[in-house]
Every structure is written in C-alpha cells, then in structure tokens.
Amino acid sequence: MSSEPYRLSATEVLQRFSNGDLTVVEYAASLLDHIDERQPVVKAWEYIDRAQVLQQARELDKVPKEQRGPLHGDDQVELDAGSVIMLRAAGALILGKTRTTEFAATVNGPATTNPHDTGRTPGGSSSGSGAAVADFQASIALGTQTGGSTIRPGSFNGVYAMKPTWNAITREGQKIYSLILDTLGFYTRSVDDLKLLAEVFGLKDDQPPQQPSSGVKGLKLAVLKTMVWDQVGPGTRDALNKGAELLRSHGADVKEIGFPTEFAKLPAWHTIILKSDGRPSFRPEYMVGKDKLDVSLVEHVEEAHGYSRKDYMEAFDGVAALRPKWDAIAEEYDAVIVPSVPDEAPKGIESTGSAAFNSMWTALHVPVINVPGFQGEHGMPIGLSLVTPRYHDQALLEVAKAVGEVWEKEGGWASKL
Amino acid sequence: MSSEPYRLSATEVLQRFSNGDLTVVEYAASLLDHIDERQPVVKAWEYIDRAQVLQQARELDKVPKEQRGPLHGDDQVELDAGSVIMLRAAGALILGKTRTTEFAATVNGPATTNPHDTGRTPGGSSSGSGAAVADFQASIALGTQTGGSTIRPGSFNGVYAMKPTWNAITREGQKIYSLILDTLGFYTRSVDDLKLLAEVFGLKDDQPPQQPSSGVKGLKLAVLKTMVWDQVGPGTRDALNKGAELLRSHGADVKEIGFPTEFAKLPAWHTIILKSDGRPSFRPEYMVGKDKLDVSLVEHVEEAHGYSRKDYMEAFDGVAALRPKWDAIAEEYDAVIVPSVPDEAPKGIESTGSAAFNSMWTALHVPVINVPGFQGEHGMPIGLSLVTPRYHDQALLEVAKAVGEVWEKEGGWASKL
Prior knowledge:
The structure is a homodimer. Chain A has a single domain (5-260, 322-410), classed as Amidase signature (AS) domain (Amidase signature (AS) enzymes). In chain A, strand 7 (220-224), helix 8 and strand 8 form a beta-alpha-beta unit. Chain A has 13 helices and 11 strands. Chain A has helices spanning 10-19, 24-42, 50-62, 81-89, 127-134, 151-157, 191-200, 234-249, 266-289, 295-301, 309-330, 359-364, 393-410; strands at residues 45-48, 75-77, 93-98, 140-145, 160-163, 183-188, 220-224, 253-257, 335-339, 368-375, 381-387. By secondary structure, chain A is of the alpha/beta class. In chain A, helix 9 (266-289) packs across helix 10 (295-301). Chains A and B meet through helix 4, helix 9 and helix 11 of A and helix 4, helix 9 and helix 11 of B.
C-alpha cells in the first residue's frame, strides 16, 4: 500500500520524477483515484476537475528535465493568487480548491470531516486543506490563519502545519479578514515538504539556519503554557508534559517559562482587532447581499461588538508594542513549545473548535509550526506548536525537523490512514 | 460652458438626477464626448469602453427613484475590487480604468500629462486619476497611496485628494506593494464629493464631527514644516505662509509646531519598510517574468537595498510606536497644516515627483486631505495638506470644507480648464 504514489510526500515524489521512476500523469491519476474514493466521506474538496488536472500533468511531463522547477509536477491546492502564481512558476500541479468555512472567517464547519474519525471536525477555517493532506489526497495544501485557522486543522488532522512570519509571503489574492492578522499557511506530512515550500516562497532569515548536528541534543527550548492554560484539556496537558520529557530524555535543555504580565491583554486585543477589522473587510459583501452573510460577519460590519475606534487603536498599538518584546524573550531559545489546541478534535462537524491557543501568535506575527505525534483519550491526533521570534522561519524549520523525529516516533500517535 | 454636465461635481449631478433635470445617459454622453476630445492630449485613461458605459447608464436610468443608491449614476474610475463593489452597490457609473505607474509602485511616469500644462507631470502613481478629475473627465476617481501617490497628484492637478485612515476602507483587490502602508485614496473637485464617498465607504469617527459654525473662525490649527523642510521649494514655502495668514485673518488660531526629535527617523523608516515589503509583494511577478519588471521592483525582490530583517523590524516597530504619539500631538488641534509637495509639478512627464512630504503620514496611518488654492511661479497649482489623528476622517472633512472655502477663494490659483 505504501508504494502507491498518492501516499508519497512531495519530496519523495520529486525524487521519483527525477529518477524517471514516475511520471506526473501516473502520479496525478493515483491521486485522482484516491480522491474519487474518499471525497464522499471526507468532503475535503470544493472544486476539482479531473480532466483539467490530467491535462496539466501531461503538460508538465513534456517539460524537459533541465527546465523543471523545484516543485515540478507536485500537487497543490489552489487558494491564493500570489502564492499560486509562485507554485505554478515552480512547476506545481494544482489539483483544485479545498473547502473552508464561509470566507475562511467563521467557526461554522463546512461538510468536511476529519479523516481519522468522520464524526469529528477537521478544524477550520482551512478544513479541507488539513483533511486532504492527512488523508493522502494531496501532499501539500495551502491555508490562512487569522485566529488559529492553519495550526488548529494541523493538530486535529495530525499533520505538519506552518504559519510563517506575517507578510514574509505575499497574501495577494486572498480574501481579507484582518490585514494585520491574516497569514498564509501550509500543510504537509513532513518537514522536508515544508522546506520545499519555504524555498519556493522565498522565506529567508538574517542568519542562515543551523542544522542541529545530532537531533535535539543540545537544543535550548522553553515550554510556555500561556495565559489561556485554564482552557487546556487532558490531551494537550499530557502531550505537553510528554513532549518536554521526550526532548529532555534525548538531551535537549527544556525550561518552563511564563509570559510577563504585560502580555495578559493579548487574547482580548486579538478579539478587538479581529472583530473591528471585519467591518471594512466585509462591508462590500454586506452592501451587496447582507442576507447571504453569516450573522457573525453581519455583526462585524454593524459593529454589534460595541468597540470604539479608540479601543481598536489601543489593541492595535498594544500588540505592536509587544512584538519586539516577545522577540527578545524568544531569542534566548532555539524554539518555544506551546499548545496547538485545547485538546483532540471535538465531536461533531458543526463547530471547527477553539483558536484560544493560536490567536496570540498570529497577533505577534511570529512563525509557528504544528508538530504532530501525540494523541488524546479517543486516539485522535494532538500536535504541539513550536514558535520563535519573527523572521526565524528557516531556523524554526530545522528545529521542527529534529523535534518532529522524536515526537513522531515516540509520542504515541500514528496515522491509521 | 459651466452648464455642460461633465463640468458638474458629483453632488451637483445627483441633485439634477433627483430633480429630473438630467438623465444618466445624458450625463454619460457628455463625459464621453469630453473624454474623446481630451484623451489624445491628457492620456488619463488606460481602458474605457464607450458602449459599455452607455449600457450601464441606460440600466441606471431604469432604476426607480426610490431604489436608487447614494451615488446613483455618478461616474467613477475602476481600480479596486472591494471599493468598486461598494461604488456599484451605491449606484455609481463606472467609466473605466485610469493610468498609473507600473503596479502603482514606481516613479516613472506613464504617458499621462498634467491638464494644466501638458509639458508637466500630473504626479503619480495615480497619474490618470488626478488628471481626469482636474480635467473634468470624471467627477470622482480612486487612487492608492504607499508613499505620496494620492496627495501628490492632488496637489499637482489642483484638486481635492483624500487618503483616509489606513484600513478604514478595504483594500481588497488592489495590487499589494506594502500591506502596512498602502491606502485607498480618492480625488474630487469639492469637499462635498469627498463626503459622498466617505458615506459610501462607511468612514466613521468615534465622535460625530462638528460642523464649524462660522467658517474657519475659532478653529485651532497648527502648521508643521516637518523634518524634510529643507526639500521645500518657493511655491510651497509661500503657500504655507499665505495659507496660515489667510486662516488667521479669518479668525482661526494658527500656531507653528515642530516634530519631537524621536520622529526624525520616520522618512528613513518609511523607505526601509517600502523597499523591504516590495520583496514578498513582487516575488510572484519576479518568478514569472523578471525581465518585464521595472528595475526598481527587481531590486526590491533581490534585496539590492541591503536591509536586514532586523532593520525592517526596527522600522516596522519604530513607526508603530510613533502612531499613538502623533495622535496625542494632533489631538490638540482641529487639524495640522503640512506641505503636500515640495513645489508645483516639475517639467517633463518622465518622473512623477517627490513623495518626501507624504510618506511620513502614510506610515503614521493618519487621514490626509490635499486642499488646492495656491500656485507656484509658473502658475501651476499647489495644495496644502490637512492631517489629524487616526480615525478623525469625518472631523477632517469638516475642517477641509471650511479651510477650502478660504483657500480656493483667496489663495490665488484658479483652474483655467
């Protein structure tokens, strides 16, 4: 079963193309057959056109080897104009558009199910992207995060999810919810595939990242439970303890830290920014068809929240002042380990779950990677997040690679798909 | 001549529609005839389709009076998806797309000329928008400002130009140059027309604006020459002196103030943010067709500027920290008067001129209105800018109305078009 092309990571697929062991058409056909079988259950796709995908694949097979881009023939999910332009320029095979919540801006789940338990939510707002990658329907998918829309589906579906530094990659063509929060994100089943994307999208740190010479040994890490720790469930609490212990047992230096008190307002400020920014962002749709909009978006435009412009500026400026302060704290460590979600994916697909543990990092603009490896009391996947200062995206990838090797092997969860 | 419909302001046109003295088709035909005559000289339009405009006009004439939007049948220049959706929903007649510099992101002038002297630049990047409104080819036009791209053409063409508070109006659909700087702006020939747009786009202050009861009398104003005053020419220097004196003679309290020293880095920080943000924003175009991009944009993507991510964050966070400080300073006045440009529009259309006096206000996110009324040594128009704290857009409109009445009447410049 593991030899079927659709199960390979993008990095593995590219290796086979390069060796001549696989054509893009063969790969596309394998994915499309698998998607045909799974779409009725997982419902990850909003739009996919078999003939169009195969046509693309035939064109890509015609490209001479020496002219192929770094993603030649790999599969991708279309979501964003600027990012999709870059993916196509790198030779990616675009499969289709996955499902999201309404404008990727509500917590009302679409029909998409969690492939590990179809009675549970895959998370949101990038519901279909997280589910498709976990279910081997694509090796790479895109998403966005305004609250927790990339990291949450990553944890719920047991895949890697990365939210890079805000504005390190263009957001051109994505529907705007909040300019200062919205961040392009992506899903893969391996850190190597995240690295492929980091190359295509041009993520670059000031210092070239150092590859840990011997796994996690010697890494300086911190554990931070955050100011919303009272919302944690047993799954994430156990994962955080176990994750830290595993790293210590492999020679990492893991220390628990807390937020300085001035960070206490971050969750409230995130809410004020989000809801206030919903007013200009959804005003065009509101003017054209208010009756077709989700009530939460109508409330943003009508300012049902009651926040004044003064409240908004206090939040906007307050978060801005915290960003360099967080960078200075995180600069002391190779990465900081934080919860990705309160617990495993909740039952039902009506709600996509809580972004409580994600929104602060979105507001602080820092890169975050969800690393899978743990499980909750019902055997559903649970991941933990690694964060760094802003523009340490490449350094974070190296740490995630080393940490992921330990957690995926010894964390206790493995995909049955 | 003044009775020809194309010469009317949007507010006047709407009044005639309402009275039944004018149809949208009559108005559209008047504008199109005038544009046909002027396009070979001013070259303000990138795209305009006579048949399509007349078809729109016929449709608008069919709308029953009680169902008409606040901009029923008014003319607009298409530039931005989110803003255009709102304009169409308000009943606006969209004429076409005006010319800009490349991606509205360079200072290399397009073919557009200044209608007051076709040997001079209309400014940029929103070159055609400023020229079209000055030349009565449209009563309203849209633009964007990342440096000085809205206010500069406003001053060079002798029209009103408004850059509202950053993110008070959605930027959805506009090409991104810098997320934290780019701001939708608009051009009109009267403050009443600016007010129409403020209504359609939903600009709202925390406090309802107070209409000055007797012109500028009693207004508390400040004059600020800024840290780039050494770049001023005789035209703007004289305009600033005259503008302040005129307001004093009409009973305003006008006081000169300076920037605190901590604002000194603002121009340099703006440059760092602009060039650094050009990297992610133009990377898609660069990957697809580097050879077709202006060299300045290629340099942004290739980081020819040499700024590190650390330099960028220092600038990004530094400007963020100054925003509430500027608000506190400006809060003491009804508005602060600052230069719009170094001087009248320079000769030649190759370069669109300097944004030195605009970039700091773009970075601080504050609303700015260019008010015309003065002239330079060659009789070309010169405007001055009024600025307030963030989210005082409606209050600023009231001050601009009162100040504009004085400057337009007694400033010494009047359009010969």
